[in-house]
Design goal:
By secondary structure, the protein is mainly β. The chain folds into two domains: 150 residues; 107 residues, Immunoglobulins (Immunoglobulin-like, Sandwich), CATH 2.60.40. It is 3% helix and 46% strand. The longest helix has 8 residues. The protein is elongated and about 65 Å long.
């Protein structure tokens, strides 16, 4: 199968959100909500009385991109990518250019669509849209240095700021934990009319929570195509295994019937993640 190279993404930084010392609520990318005392609230009211609600979405070492017909990873060795969900309850909502993230003594603007034109989230029908002032809600993404002082880290807009909780600040400050793929299992055969599936196991050998990101592509039986985006938080010191659903396998044309059960490999799958990849072949057999 064709090996896809990992591309480097050159982006800019970010900046932060509300002032004041209040209780802040943070929602992780896995849906867990934690409340930390002494931090800024997730909802704040700037001077113009527009309330801006902010939630933590994800912190990851790479971005998953959809490059026409396959999934690829964009990353640099010295960056981390922070996703936040932002919602304004009234007009006028602040422009995206008025938002920033404060980190390690610097102020970083959100990455613009022109800087991430093939970001997978843009094409995912189940994902919220990128934040725009006209819509008043959506996600924003910041490219930050991989490590730095997060003691004063905050998402900032005109008149307010929001501070992440202690766990997120610790992750922002620390190097990414070493995440290793222990296992990638693919059933060698799939029945015509059935669905392929994958089993992934990842170990976090570090001391902080880390998000593993990757993608699965396929070639053969049909044209080159993306199959699945993988995004999972891995607790420190743990190995997490989970199943990833694949694709349904049907006859694309009548002429393909002779290929079913002929003993030859029909589909090649490639699993890519930051710093590695694995491949496996699958045969289509009678159901």
């Amino acid at each position: 199968m064709r090996r896809r190279t990992v591309l480097a993404l050159c982006g800019s930084g970010l900046a932060g959100c509300t002032s004041g010392q209040r209780t802040g609520t943070t929602t992780s990318g896995d849906g867990e909500t934690t409340t930390s005392a002494g931090t800024t609230s997730g909802t704040a009211t700037p001077p113009d009385d527009v309330e801006l609600s902010v939630e933590f979405d994800a912190l990851q070492p790479a971005l998953v991109a959809l490059n026409v017909d396959y999934l690829d990873l964009h990353s640099t060795s010295s960056s981390q990518y922070l996703f936040l969900r932002v919602s304004a309850s009234a007009d006028p909502a602040p422009a995206r250019s008025d938002l920033s993230f404060r980190f390690d003594g610097g102020s970083y603007p959100p990455l613009e669509p022109t800087e991430t034109p093939d970001l997978h989230r843009e094409f995912d029908s189940e994902s919220a849209p990128r934040y725009e002032a006209d819509g008043g809600s959506g996600w924003v993404i910041f490219e930050l240095p991989e490590t730095g002082d997060a003691g004063d880290a905050a998402f900032v807009w005109p008149g307010g700021e929001w501070r992440p909780d202690g766990q997120v600040r610790a992750r922002l400050a620390a190097p990414f934990p070493p995440l290793s793929v222990e296992r990638w299992e693919v059933e060698p055969t799939v029945a015509l009319g059935g669905r392929t599936s994958f089993r992934v196991a990842v170990t976090n050998a570090g001391d902080v929570l880390g998000r593993f990101v990757g993608g699965i592509n396929a070639e053969g039986w049909q044209p080159h195509r993306p199959i699945a985006v993988i995004s999972r938080q891995i607790p420190p010191g743990e190995t997490v295994a989970w199943d990833v659903p694949g694709e349904e396998v049907e006859l694309v044309s009548d002429g393909m019937a002779d290929r079913v059960g002929d003993g030859e490999a029909d589909i090649d799958y490639e699993f890519v993640w930051p710093g590695g990849s694995r491949s496996a072949s699958v045969r289509v057999v009678e159901g």
